[in-house]
Amino acid sequence: MDHDFERIGRLLYKDGLNLERAKLGWFALERSTLYVWFEDSDKEEAINLRKLQELSTQTDHDVLVLVEKRRTLYMQGERRLEAQGWWAAIQRAAGSSGDTLSDQQLTEDDTPVLVERCVAYVTQYGLTSEGIYRKSGQKSKTTHLLEQFVKNARAVKLREEDHQVDDVSNTLKRFFRESIGESIFTHGAYQDWLQTSTIPEDCPKIAQYQKLFANLPQVNRATLKALINHLYCVQKVSDKNQMTTHNLAIVFGPTLFQTDGQDSKAGRVVADLVNHFVPIFNVDEQQLKKQLDEIVSIIKIRDACLMQSSQNAGDFICTVYLEEKKADCELSLKVPATMTAQELTNDVLYLRKLVTKERDNWCCFEVIDKEEMERPLHHTEKVLPILHALATDSYVVVKRNTALDSMLMYLGSKVADQKHGMVKFREERKLGLGTGSFSDRYFMLTDQTLRLFKEVRSNKPDKEWPVKSLKIYLGVKRKLKPPTCWGFTVIYETKERHEKQHWYMCCDTQMEQREWFATFLYVQNDGTIWPSDASCCRSSHKPSESRFGNVSLIPLRGNANEMRNSVAAFTAAPVSISKKV
């Protein structure tokens, strides 16, 4: 072993595929690399800690959990103090340790996590924002966000409701200008890049750029390619965001070269890289076209959402039930595009003047398939898209979540961000439900994926799905003849074909079903399944704009004629009504 180890020792481990028996292996830490000698193996395995998808602890810091792209490794010291020492050392090694690009927490593609997440966020929410990257955002917010990324980029979750596009874009610029000690082009080749921009002919210029790019360190190459790819996409929609190649070059030239903006050659380098993106970076044009098509789709969806949300909120009158689907429990009320499940629950409880108790735990449920399946909506989930997509035998109901207390108690008893175990499983046939039966299968749920193994000792998952793309419903269709009454249905919609795939899972006990469901909610919603201030779910506030002119939108406990007249009057002359508001 030709290494200078900082820490070495024997630890118990489980590899995530066989969790029945812990094995004993040798572990050694050198900088950001963890070397492992597993039991019955004479070869070392190297784990790049900066590329981990997740790093966490379980059971009061006794168990270390390392999640790689296709493996989860559980490590435990023979003594608690030993485990805590390893945890502290590995946490330091897995974090950002310096001011070079290679010292940052990285993705599998060798791009800093900060760059990958900021680029993805701007692509999703900011491509059509006028002046994107030219505007600076709020300095205090970008400073805080940059500090969070530098401290632990893996832990930062960018959300539209929490982060403004200009704050995220400015964080990316400040990272390249301030957080790394040298330009992405490196000190040694800095002047060569600038001089290349003065070459008059395109062919020799492109060839020189290709040579310089090939000589960059691996992380610098991956990062530069990812960034220029992003800028190429930004300028493709300059008719919306006004950020042409020239405008982007003015912004990113001084940023990437870390200069004061006086040297125009810095901007010309960035313009050249964007204009000649395909040949310089040897880009697959088919893949690039696919990427641009996806961006067009994102923009169309965003435009449609903005158009819908900008319409008068009174345009949407939807039916919701209280406690059960009965005529005297039905309410027709206005649902704006921004309304969350929690807000809808508050409105319904107020309008029915229902006296609630502290632990009633009222929430919205989506009920489908002739009441055979249902799911509680997360309190931040927008309800209008769900109401619009309901089938004729489906509805939304506000009722008590009787399982919530036990689920919260389970989550509070441990770091429940993962779960694994045997369940009875049945897959939907492609050509129909067929005559298949439920079989015992081993499942592993992490914050990234749901994995299916044919048996506990399987080395590779038989199937794997991204957990945040799944919808989980309590219940299984009766015609499938589920072996127990404690089942749930997993639905996954493929983005490419817009096809829905269904899987059915049954547990042996009700508590086991609740533990699985609680863990799904926990990992899908970043650890929050219920508002921290539970009293907000029993709000007594009055819903805003409960009337339009003299038309009652919500005839509480009225007869059928009153309800029909209210809705008919509103829909018959929406223009005249809106003029009165």
Write structural notes for this entry.
It is a single chain. By secondary structure, the chain is α+β, with helices and mostly antiparallel strands. Helices cover 37% and strands 20% of the residues. The longest helix is centred in the middle third of the chain and has 26 residues, at 285-310. The radius of gyration is 28 Å and the shape is globular. The chain starts with 6 loop residues before the first strand and ends with a helix. The model is unreliable at 430-435, 536-541 and 544-581 (pLDDT under 50).
Topology:
Blueprint (H helix, E strand, L loop, with lengths): L6 E8 L8 E8 L2 E5 L7 E4 L5 E5 L4 E5 L4 E5 L3 H15 L18 H13 L13 H14 L12 H15 L10 H7 L5 H13 L3 H19 L1 H4 L3 H13 L6 H12 L1 H4 L4 H26 L6 E6 L7 E5 L6 H11 L10 E7 L4 E4 L7 H6 L5 E6 L3 H9 L6 E9 L11 E7 L3 E5 L9 E4 L3 E5 L12 E7 L6 E7 L3 H15 L22 E2 L2 E2 L7 H13 L1 H7 L1
Parallel strand pairs: 8-12
Antiparallel strand pairs: 1-2, 1-7, 2-3, 3-4, 5-6, 6-7, 8-9, 10-11, 10-12, 13-14, 13-19, 14-15, 15-16, 17-18, 18-19, 20-21
